Automatic annotation (TrEMBL):
It comes from Trinickia dabaoshanensis. The keyword Acyltransferase does not apply. Pfam families: Polysacc_synt_3 (PF13440). Keywords: Cell membrane, Membrane, Transmembrane, Transmembrane helix. The lineage of its organism: Bacteria, Pseudomonadati, Pseudomonadota, Betaproteobacteria, Burkholderiales. This is PST family polysaccharide export protein.
Amino acid sequence: MEQIRGSRSIRFPAFSWRAGLHPSAATWVLLQQLVVRGLVAVKFLALGRILGPAAIGSVSVALLAVAIAESLSDTGLAQAIIQGREAPTRSQLGSVLTTLATRGVFISLLLASLAPAMFHMFHLRAGELGLLQLAAIVPLIRGAMSPAYFVVQRERRFQHISAIEISASIADCSVAIGTALTGAGVYAALIGTMTGESIKTSLTWITMRPRPPLRLAWSGIGHYVRFSRWIWASSVVTLVLNQFDKVVVATLLGPAQFGAYQMSSRLAQMLLADAAIAMSQFLFPTFAAQHRQEPKKAARLFKRYLALLLCALAMVVLVLRASATQLFSLVLGKSWLGAVPLFDIFVINMAVGALIALLVAYLRAIGSPKTTTHASILQVLVLVATVPLATRHWGATGVAWSLTAGLSVSAAFMFYRLTRSK
């Protein structure tokens, strides 16, 4: 009888579209995705129109530096807490907080010290060194976030998470656009990001339980580290996959070309990949909870989401490629029309990325994070083999096609491993 009750308690969030406004419903994840990504779109599209491609390229360089540093030091503790069979104790959360806060301090100091070198490496304009130094504060704020956030994710309290993420995004978008209009220039985007991250960090401490003890502690999380080492390895490989092309374009072509490359990539991501990534935040803990109870039901749930996603992606890709020119002209203006050929490629790229987000959520939920790491390594090998030649002959367009090829190989490998495991 207990097993039957446990199964029913898991089934509820798995078929969450019937659950309406239940705190664990997928409705909240979708609402969060719609509002947060919509606000991100408004923020960067507005800044793109106000500041132009070169300024967006400079901002992207600063955020690129943050992303690289955070990926290299990703602990994987969040995923380990969500996937683990037992919920963490307050003492363990204290150790997680110590680890994450220390990581944030380290990244901030590293970025601040490397700012002059990055300024010259990425050909930033005079007066933009402070942009890199300001970006160094972002990881410090993120590192102070309460690890109770991961417990809330584990317990699938998506309504709570949605409220915090939406509040932070509203502040980010409002402050960024407001400061840009008042003359803050390239600094507007980072000022908005810092405001949003500060609000998110504060709300995790104010509204989430259990609160970890505020003391230095490192013990008691060895079992999380054993799982998270694969997450860290995957993060390092993903760093190469996600940032390698950006580094190549930024260093070789400068901020203006990098701005066009980034905007086309970001716009395709907003319209395609972000929805799947948001759903993976719901599906990872849901798959994990279902798998702990009945693995076969978790597999069936995965197949249903996979079929739905494939149909949706095919339709959206066709529509976006057909309307790309009109979209850029209407939203960003004619100065951005040179980015349309890149956008056509990134639409395909992000569709494959959306598929991978679902695969990664399921593989990590069933306790196989190493499969995703191996798939990422294959993707790196494809990039190493194709990017030099593609860049030489086709420039940024060649880099974009190389990324698409690597993503396709990665997705195919994960499908193969899932088929073999069955």
